[in-house]
Design brief:
The complex is a heterodimer of chains A (about 130) and B (about 550).
Chain A (H helix, E strand, L loop, with lengths): L4 E2 L2 H35 L5 H40 L7 H8 L7 H6 L2 H4 L8
Helix pairs in contact in A: 1-2, 2-3
Chain B lengths: L4 H5 L4 H30 L6 E2 L1 H55 L2 E3 L5 E3 L9 H38 L24 H9 L3 H10 L1 H5 L6 H36 L6 H32 L4 E7 L5 E6 L7 E6 L9 H18 L5 E7 L7 H4 L3 H20 L6 E7 L1 H12 L6 E5 L19 E4 L7 H6 L14 E2 L9 H5 L5 E2 L9 E2 L1 H10 L11
Parallel strand pairs in B: 6-7, 6-8, 8-9, 9-10, 10-11
Antiparallel strand pairs in B: 2-3, 4-5, 5-7, 12-13
Helix pairs in contact in B: 2-3, 3-4, 5-12, 8-9, 9-10, 10-16, 12-13
Classes of the chains: A mainly alpha (about 130), B alpha/beta (about 550).
Pfam families (chain B): Abhydrolase_8 (PF06259)
Keywords (chain B): Coiled coil
Organism (chain B): Glycomyces paridis
Chain lengths: ~130, ~550
């Protein structure tokens, strides 16, 4: 196995931050599409019975896919990179707060990140892949 | 119920227009996501900033993610956007036509009912001529036809939009899975080579997810790397030991409860419970014994891998001392009659002895020796006179050997399959039945290889090695030839190597190939059995140093 080495840990942090941001963007962007699908499926039942039904099904499938396969992929990938970057900076044990601070030093404390760092998560040792 | 003329009157395409606009924006955003992944994120994960296996896996994961987002996902989203736009325009055109037909019909004094029936809005009081009547009737017919065509075209656009959206139901399947999220058993291939390729294509997070989800399956899957198999099997074994612990406690509590209730010692209820407790306790001890034997070798500083095990029946286990995936030389030792999990420690000791001997024979090379009890060995001598249990094991042993080859890293390993006693029938039958099982076949105290001559084996006779010490109790069944023959028989072919007879009788000599020789009879070991150095030289490829029987 080739030894793993983060030559520039900050670069990994940057990648992690971009992925966290990407996941956030996905979370911000898609709900409006989902709402529009739900509305169209409901409003078109009389005049557009077939496409209304298809829109309803599409909404269910794509919403699940978008949140699970896309957003979670971006998030878990970001977590992995963040932990690897933290490892490279010789942090021995990560709490959720450490993890987020390392992963996203500028955003730490912002509304989105602060919401994630509640009392419980701060006291929980991070168990992610290292 | 089919769409009718009246439905179009109340149709509102506003929500559909909103949806179309939302998908237009979403497709744009997907393109931006793809750009972020392809350019911005990739820039921060380059080879100049991150190196090693994890780095390679991370870049591969990023590539798959980006390819999926900008490929399959974007294609489907764009198809949805285009379908919404096209069919919206078609639907809008039919609604405009609906309005036009309604207006023209009204101007002509006609009324169109919700079901498309056209009639005079106000029946004329004046008497019309024949020509006027015919013209009016024709107008009614034409209006009804136009209304029907409009409804039909509207319904067609509805159906076409539905078909396009349904086609986009199937979500893209090429994205890497989220960590810890439902890896699918159906994605795990069969066949050692396919398994090795599949595993090599997963990134570390995906591997963790699969190991967590399917340790029972992956622990025994040939083609998986040794360290992954070991991780899976150790976790499963630990869980099984805990479960057996709990079961023993429960049965003991039930017996204590019987004591308290004064249930007689010889009652059927108590005897059954005692029998069950003894069986569970025995199984527990076998499992704990396997853990202890592994731990003992690890405490000596050895790399030990639990490559497979089962607590079913007599129990089975496959343990490697040394990593077969990186070893220059790998030997697989197949034990014989009476072997089961309860006495597997003996086979691990023999494998350990061979491992130590191999290190001495080839100190600059890496060697792994595997004790392979991956079959149901005979429980008695009469059972051992039947070749069926050996033949039943050939599929599993060949698969295991192919798996070693598939998971081996960096070039070929020199492989030997060695059987002791009935285990040599298993090894011989496997080499007779399958091609390319190993580079060397070694039989020790063999009752037969299932073949009558080396020509029946799928291996060159220069690589077939056998020994039987003088006075070994196996000589009698060898003479009977019920299980075929080996190189110690005249005319079989192959190489017969030397070994010492260590033990006071034929039974002890049969198990004495790994024991030291007490040459002066003072009860102290003086040197190893010659068989050991010969076996070590064979498995390390130093075959010119093997001592042959003249």
């Amino acid at each position: 196995m080739a030894e793993n080495r983060a030559i520039e840990p900050d670069s990994l942090n940057q990648a992690a931050r971009l992925l966290f941001d990407l996941a956030d963007s996905m979370g911000d962007d898609f709900p409006a599409v989902g709402d529009a699908m739900a509305d169209a499926a409901e409003q078109g039942k009389e005049a557009l019975p077939e496409s209304s039904n298809a829109i309803g099904n599409l909404n269910e499938r794509w919403t699940g896919y978008e949140s699970k396969d896309m957003r979670e992929n971006a998030t878990t990938f970001a977590e992995y990179l963040a932990v690897f970057a933290a490892d490279a900076t010789e942090i021995e044990e990560y709490t959720a707060a450490d993890f987020l601070r390392v992963a996203d030093p500028e955003l730490f404390g912002s509304e989105q990140r602060a919401a994630a760092v509640d009392e419980d998560s701060v006291s929980t040792t991070y168990q992610g892949p290292v | 119920m089919a769409v009718q003329w009246g439905d179009l009157a109340g149709a509102d395409l506003g929500p559909l227009e909103t949806l179309r606009d939302q998908w237009r924006g979403y497709v744009d955003r997907l393109e931006e996501y793809g750009n972020v992944l392809a350019e911005d994120v990739a820039k921060h994960l380059g080879e100049d900033v991150f190196e090693g296996d994890d780095a390679v896996a991370a870049r591969a994961r990023l590539d798959r993610f980006q390819t999926a987002v900008t490929g399959d996902v974007l294609d489907r989203a764009a198809a949805i956007r285009d379908a919404l736009a096209d069919q919206h325009d078609a639907l809008k055109g039919e609604l405009d036509r609906h309005e036009s037909i309604t207006t023209e019909a009204g101007n002509a004094g006609l009324s169109i009912a919700a079901d498309g029936w056209v009639s005079l809005a106000r029946p004329e009081q004046t008497v019309m001529g024949v020509e006027e009547t015919e013209a009016q009737q024709q107008l009614i017919i034409d209006t009804a036809a136009a209304a029907a065509a409009c409804v039909e075209a509207f319904a067609l656009a509805d159906a076409q939009l539905a078909a396009a959206l349904n086609a986009a139901w199937e979500v893209p399947s090429e994205l890497p899975m989220p960590i810890g999220e439902n890896p699918e058993m159906q994605d795990i291939p069969t066949g050692p080579e396919h398994v090795a390729d599949w595993w090599a294509g997963l990134d570390p997070m995906e591997r963790d997810a699969y190991l967590e989800a399917f340790p029972d399956l992956l622990g025994g899957l040939d083609g998986m790397p040794a360290d992954a198999r070991n991780t899976a099997n150790e976790a499963t074994l630990e869980r099984e030991v805990d479960a057996l612990d709990a079961e023993v406690d429960s049965l003991e509590r039930q017996l204590a409860d019987m004591d308290a209730r004064g249930v007689p010692e010889d009652s059927a209820e108590r005897l059954m419970l005692q029998e069950e407790l003894a069986a569970v306790q025995a199984k527990h001890d076998e499992a704990k014994g396997l853990q202890t034997n592994i731990a003992t070798l690890e405490e000596e500083g050895k790399d030990v891998y639990l490559l497979d095990y089962s607590l079913e029946g007599d129990g089975q286990a496959v343990v490697s001392i040394g990593n077969p995936d990186t070893a220059d030389n790998t030997a697989v030792h197949v034990p014989g009659t009476y072997s089961e999990l309860s006495n597997f420690g003996t086979q691990m000791n023999r494998a350990d002895t061979m491992y130590e001997d191999a290190l001495k024979a080839a100190p600059d090379e890496e060697t792994a020796v595997i004790a392979w009890l991956g079959y149901d060995a005979p429980d008695s001598v009469p059972q051992a006179s039947n070749p069926q249990q050996a033949h039943d094991a050939t599929g599993d042993l060949s698969s295991f050997m192919y798996g070693l080859e598939a998971s081996h890293q960096g070039g070929d390993s020199h492989t030997s399959v060695m059987g002791h006693s009935y285990g040599s029938t298993v090894a011989g039958d496997t080499v007779r039945t399958y091609e390319g099982v190993a580079d060397e076949l070694i039989t020790v105290a063999s009752p037969g290889t299932s073949a009558n001559s080396v020509e029946e084996l799928n291996i060159d006779e220069d690589h077939v090695w056998s020994t039987t010490a003088e006075g070994d109790a196996i000589e009698l069944p060898q003479d009977l030839g019920l299980l075929g023959h080996d190189a110690t028989n005249d005319g079989f072919g192959g190489n017969e190597f030397t070994s010492d007879a260590v033990g006071a009788d034929g039974g002890q000599i049969h198990g004495g190939y790994w024991r030291d020789v007490d040459e002066n009879g003072d009860g102290e070991p003086d040197r190893p059995n010659e068989a050991r150095s010969n076996i070590a030289n064979i498995i390390t490829g130093n075959t010119d140093k093997v001592g042959l029987v003249e």
